Amino acid sequence: MTHNKKALVATLAAAIAATFMGAIPAAHAADAYPSKPITVLVPFGPGSGVDTTARIVSEALGRELGQTLVIENRAGAQGAIAAQGAARAAPDGYTVFFTTQTTQAANPALMKKPGYDPIKDFAPVGRVAYTPALLVSNPALPVKTLDDLIALAKQQPGKLTYASGSAGTLVPAAMLTSAAKIEMLHVPYKSIPLGLNDVIAGHVAMMFTEVVTGTQQVKAGKVRALGISSLKPWPSLPDVPPIANRFPGFELLAWYGVYVPANTPAPIVDRLSAALKTVMNDAAVRERLVGLGLEVSYSTAPELATFGKSELEKWTKVIKAAGIEPE
């Protein structure tokens, strides 16, 4: 063997060895994962729909993974604060982002500088559920139907107030004002429960809220349901008319999904995805989520990756069509 051939063989052997040795730590880390508690970042406050859902799913995931999952709420800036934190976290599987379409599909069109990229900065784990937005008003407001609300808003242009606590509650309101050709005053909140509390107290006239947070208040008589953003009546609120009955095609569904920081080792992502699939197929977990008013809709990591890109395009178009300017 010539000197050059010997040198080439040595170089190739060294490269193969380096590749093999480099793979060992990642493989070992995946085998040992998880060896300590996992932080679950939630972009909205306690009591919000995504928070309640995250707690149910995280509890079951903890049992499946044999490790504790700790919820950390980081509300503010339409979820961007939590998204930035998740994007910048170590890609080791010990920070999980349990989020909604607000951070992953809407914020790039709602914010000039969200501070993260919903596609490049995250690795999908799986989708969990869907939910429509529920239009509710303070019972003292002299309206009982959506038509009543529209008529009142036209009598008092720019005077009626509406709250929002996320893109999933802001965007349908903008869609409604555009479709009905009415003017109302927007009052933003850090999270949906805070806005809903002020609707109940009469400080704000109405809002689109989540089914998870709004259903109990409707049944308790603390707010009045005027419409829902699904095309058909929602199973948990069959008597609430779809807004699409008045404005054909009016539909906007929020969704919940699980992500980890980009560059998290594939074996760890696979471990989380497999655990999430098991949890989402668990009858007891599904029953609890359906009981909240959610439509359970599990998807795999690759499916969520494709879905996330299509949702980003969809929400960008919807937001622009509703006339919402990025801030």
Helical segment tally?
11
Do you know the CATH architecture of the largest domain?
Answer: 3-Layer(aba) Sandwich
Distance between the termini: 68 Å
Provide mean pLDDT, rounded: 91
Strand content: 15-25%
Family: Belongs to the UPF0065 (bug) family.
Protein name: Tripartite-type tricarboxylate transporter receptor subunit TctC
Signal peptide: 1-29
Keywords: Receptor, Signal
Q: What would the keywords be for this entry?
A:
signal, Tripartite-type tricarboxylate transporter receptor subunit TctC, BUG, 2 domains, alpha/beta, receptor, D-Maltodextrin-Binding Protein, domain 2, Bug_dom1, 327 residues
Describe this structure in words.
Belongs to the UPF0065 (bug) family. InterPro entries: BUG (IPR005064), Bug_dom1 (IPR042100). It comes from Pigmentiphaga litoralis. Keywords: Receptor, Signal. Residues 1-29 form the signal peptide. It is a single chain. With 327 residues, this protein is α/β, with parallel strands linked by helices. It has 2 domains: 30-130 and 255-321, D-Maltodextrin-Binding Protein, domain 2; 132-245, Periplasmic binding protein-like II (D-Maltodextrin-Binding Protein, domain 2, 3-Layer(aba) Sandwich), CATH 3.40.190.10. It contains 11 helices and 10 strands. It has helices spanning 3-32, 49-65, 80-88, 101-110, 146-155, 167-180, 192-201, 211-219, 266-280, 283-291, 301-321; strands spanning 38-42, 69-73, 95-100, 122-137, 161-164, 185-188, 206-210, 224-228, 253-261, 295-299. Strands 1, 2, 3, 4, 5, 6, 7, 8, 9 and 10 form a 10-stranded mixed beta sheet that branches. Helix 2 (49-65) crosses helix 9. The longest helix has 30 residues, at 3-32. It is globular and about 65 Å long. The termini are far apart. The model has no long low-confidence stretch (mean pLDDT 91).
